[in-house]
Amino acid sequence: MDEFSRLSLHVPEPAVRPGGQPDFSNVKIPKAGSVPRPEVDVAPEEIRDLAFSIIRVLNRDGEAVGPWAGLLSDEELLTGLRHMMTLRAFDARMLMAQRQGKTSFYMQHLGEEAVSCAFRRALRKGDMNFPTYRQAGLLIADDYPMVEMMNQIFSNESDPCHGRQLPVMYTSKEHGFFTISGNLATQYVQAVGWAMASAIKNDTRIAAGWIGDGSTAESDFHSALVFASTYRAPVILNIVNNQWAISTFQGIARGGSGTFAARGLGFGIPALRVDGNDYLAVYAVARWAAERARRNLGPTLIEYVTYRVGAHSTSDDPSAYRPKTESEAWPLGDPVLRLKKHLIVRGAWSEERHAQAEAEIMDEVIQAQKQAESHGTLHAGGKPSVRDIFEGVYAEMPPHIRRQRQKAGY
Amino acid sequence: MARMTMIEAVRSAMDVSMARDENVVVFGEDVGYFGGVFRCTQGLQAKYGKTRCFDAPISESGIVGTAIGMAAYGLKPCVEIQFADYMYPAYDQITQEAARIRYRSNGDFTCPIVLRMPTGGGIFGGQTHSQSPEALFTHVCGLKVIVPSNPYDAKGLLISAIEDPDPVMFLEPKRLYNGPFDGHHERAVTPWSKHELGDVPEGHYTIPIGKAEIRRKGSAVTVVAYGTMVHVALAAAEETGIDAEVIDLRSLLPLDLDTIVQSVTKTGRCVVVHEATLTSGFGAELVSLVQEHCFYHLEAPVIRVTGWDTPYPHAQEWDYFPGPARVGRALTEVMEA
Ligand SMILES: Cc1ncc(C[n+]2csc(CCOP(=O)(O)OP(=O)(O)O)c2C)c(N)n1
User: Fold this and answer.
1) How many angstroms is it from A185 CA to the middle of ligand 1?
2) Which tens digits make up the pLDDT trace of B2-11?
3) Is residue A206 part of a domain?
4) InterPro entries given for it (chain A) (predicted)?
5) B266 C-alpha to center of ligand 1: Å?
6) Cβ-based contacts of B89 with chain A (< 8 Å)
7) How many helices (H) and strands (E) does chain A have?
8) Which is nearest to B323 in space by CA: B226, B231, B202?
9) Helix locations, chain B, DSSP H
10) Probe residue for ligand 1, chosen from A184, A188, A303 as the CB with the greatest number of ligand atoms within 8 Å
11) Is the Cβ of B54 closer than 8 Å to some Cβ of chain A?
12) Residue of A nearest to B123 (CA)
């Protein structure tokens, strides 16, 4: 017999399946405040550990501790809380609207609100995000009108995309929100290109790319890292690790025992992991990366460790592939509740004010929804015109499309 | 016989093939434990183990590239691309690699892979869940391209595809997954259980790749269609009362030219229907073949009814998708010409 035994294929599996006990013992969570904060011009090889740890600011008692704390005022934190609560209320209403047949499809952010809401506050006007479908917080935290978002979701007569784009696939150049593609990862490398252009033109604006843990498996993710590191593009490369890619656990894209952040190391890109459910930590890390980009020090890769509490989309049923109680077992808590507690500890907030704010925000969202619905929903009321199908394919409508439009009767 | 939806028929084809040949492996995004977002692979992992049916990373290029490598080793991979729209990252692997390995290696290496993918619109999938990319593949030599229109064909053709020694693109019209589509979007789908073609043998059978089927006999005009549009064409023939012969191509590459030529020679008129964009679509190939082979029998110009030359719109999809009214107008037009 040969000294080698026969080969066998390794197919990774999550720790538990429906019916089992949720288990996050494999997620190693360092104490809040325990991860150092390097200077922004640190050499990437000196901070390799940051790609394996988790930067956290808020501790269990709701206090902000350690070297990444102290960047935000009470007022800024209250604004952040409001953004997250708004996004949550918005999701709740839109989810219901989808069930009522007012739109075909919706994707919610439950549990991940801190990531996009806090990140947006570290950017400036003029910076550009290349988001995926779970970063509506970038718009909310930039005061983009909710009515416009809903018009887009309802594909109504006031939809800025004229009914042509899938719901939640927003676009707003003014608010630094590049038009979303349904094809995953394609925009990660585009973010790098935008940042390179800004550097070519000696501009001051920076870019941010967004991707999910599952989508890091796409070739475009790796292309983005090559270009970002080669040209030291002023870009922040964000990976939202919410543990699941539809039914597929993060171990399928990650493989081995590394982290997603660690993928930056082979490219010489400084890579940090951060508690994605900690508004303060997300903001602090985003600001650190933004400062690096602005000081022409090049790209930063950030992995946000979080959990997708809701379904992947309205077409998904998570109870078919993970324990129903898994989200409750998630060790990093709820981003809204954690910031609320912190503000209460700081003496800047109270249960009463929170309850009142919740009611106010829901009212605002409902008012916006009423206004949006007055312009129609997917199957009722005002609709984009069939004529709109033919517009915007090219800057100027070529004759063959004009003929087709006429044939369609418009 | 059992009453099966197209989803069940597709699953049954993989099940039968995996049971008969242990070299058949099934993988793709979400296909393992969960059974795929449309549930086409449900139960296969439990039955055949996770090294024969497993989840792949979200990397279409990686999925197709590894499938090619597995095929070179001697396996028969049948992979799922979650939506046809997501095949593009793998386009290089499909067109430059899979399609040409036999030719360039002089048969030293071959590529018996099947790439299954849901195609077409009619489910409010928007721009990125509604595309019909068949013409991109029929332009590539070395591939085979199949589009079934019912559960019986889907199963028989998929088994043939898995047993085929060359790479096969298997395009599944998702509008037909649960029932045939009569072309009227405001009416509920009639389930396959109420439909003759929902009758599918439980065991192994094949349908030859490259053979069309005449779904409706007629003598006035030939309608050439495939996938969802077969049902729209049948509805248009019923509604207009025009004595149309409806051909379901089933396989676009290779194409059953004889059936088309025989029919058009008999009827003297032809309408071609597909969901995909008009310009340089597969309809252009069909029309030029018809004029090349049937010119002296034609009594009217051949007309195409297709989607428009625009991306697929979300809210206005029923104005994009050819329905029986549009096909009916074309039928009337060729009859009056
Ligand atoms: C190129 C491509 N392949 C497949 C899909 C289908 N798809 C949509 S979302 C998704 C899962 C993405 O998971 P992840 O990147 O982890 O992001 P999350 O949804 O968890 O935020 C898949 C496979 C797609 N949209 N694009």
Assistant:
1) 9
2) 999 999 999 9
3) yes
4) Alpha-ketoacid_DH_E1_comp (IPR050771), DH_E1 (IPR001017), Oxoisoval_DH_suAlpha_N_dom (IPR022593), THDP-binding (IPR029061)
5) 50
6) 183, 185, 218-220
7) 13, 7
8) B231
9) 6-20, 44-48, 60-73, 91-92, 101-104, 134-138, 151-163, 228-240, 257-267, 282-294, 317-320, 324-336
10) A184
11) yes
12) A104
Sign of CA dihedral A142, A146, A151, A157: negative
Each residue of B31-86: pLDDT tens digit? 999 999 999 999 999 999 999 999 999 999 999 999 999 999 999 999 999 999 99
Q: How many domains does chain B have?
A: 2
Q: Does residue B29's CB lie within 6 angstroms of at least one atom of ligand 1?
A: yes
Q: Are residues B195 and B220 in the same domain?
A: no
| pLDDT at residue A1, as a whole number | 59
Domain that holds residue A286: 48-310+321-379
- The domain in which residue B238 lies consists of 213-336
Token pair 């004229």 is found at A162
Please give the helix or strand (H or E) that residue A120 lies within, else none: helix A113-120
CB B36 within 8 A of CB B28: yes
Whether A164 sits inside 8 A of B50 (CB atoms) is no
Distance CA A118, CA A192 (A): 21
Q: Which of A91, A215, A316 to probe ligand 1 with, by most ligand atoms within 8 A of CB?
A: A215
Confirm or reject contact between B50 and chain A (CB < 8 A). Answer: yes
Pairing mode, strands B251-253 and B144-146? antiparallel
The token duo for B170 is 């298997």
d(CA A270, CA A42): 9
Spacing of C-alpha A399 from chain mean position = 41
> Is there a contact between B32 and A11 if contact means CB atoms under 8 Å apart?
yes
CB of A315 closer than 6 A to ligand 1? no
Same structural domain for residues B184 and B252? no
Taking the model in full, what pTM does it have? 0.96
**A242 in contact with ligand 1, CB cutoff 6 A:** yes
Record: contact A217-B86, CB cut-off 8 A: no
Q: Is residue A29 part of a domain?
A: no
Query: In this structure, is the dihedral angle defined by the CA atoms of residues A70, A73, A78 and A79, taken in order, positive or negative?
Result: negative
pLDDT, tens digit (0-9, with 9 covering 90-100), for A71-114? 999 999 999 999 999 999 999 999 999 999 999 999 999 999 99
Q: What are phi and psi of B78, to 5 degrees?
A: -120, 100
Residue type for A77, please? L
**CB-based contacts of B196: which residues, under 8 Å, 6+ apart?**
none
The CATH number of the domain holding residue B175 is 3.40.50.970
Asked if B112 and B28 sit in the same domain, the reply is yes
- Note whether residue A40 is domain-resident: no
Helix B151-163 / helix B6-20 crossing angle, nearest 10 deg: 30
Question: Predicted ipTM?
Answer: 0.93
Among the listed residues B129, B185, B204, B314, the single catalytic one is B129
Q: Is B192 on the interface with A (CB under 8 A)?
A: no
Ramachandran angles phi, psi of B303, nearest 5°:
-115, 145
Q: What is the pLDDT of residue A155?
A: 97
Question: Which among B58, B129, B319 has CB closest to A245?
Answer: B58
What atom of ligand 1 comes closest to residue A134's alpha carbon?
21
Close Cβ partners of B164 (under 8 Å, ≥ 6 residues apart) = B112, B114, B144, B209
| B204 carries an active-site annotation | no
Torsion, CA B29, CA B35, CA B39, CA B41, rounded to 10:
90
User: Is residue A241 one of the residues assigned to a domain?
Assistant: yes
Listed by number, the residues of chain B in 17-36 with a beta carbon closer than 8 Å to a beta carbon of chain A are 29-30, 32-34
- How far is ligand 1, taken at its centre, from the CA of residue A109, in Å? 14
The DSSP letter of residue A226 is H
Radius of gyration of chain B (CA): 19
Mean pLDDT by 10 residues, chain B (337 residues): 96 98 98 97 98 98 98 98 97 98 96 98 92 97 98 98 98 96 85 94 98 98 98 97 98 98 98 98 98 98 98 94 96 96
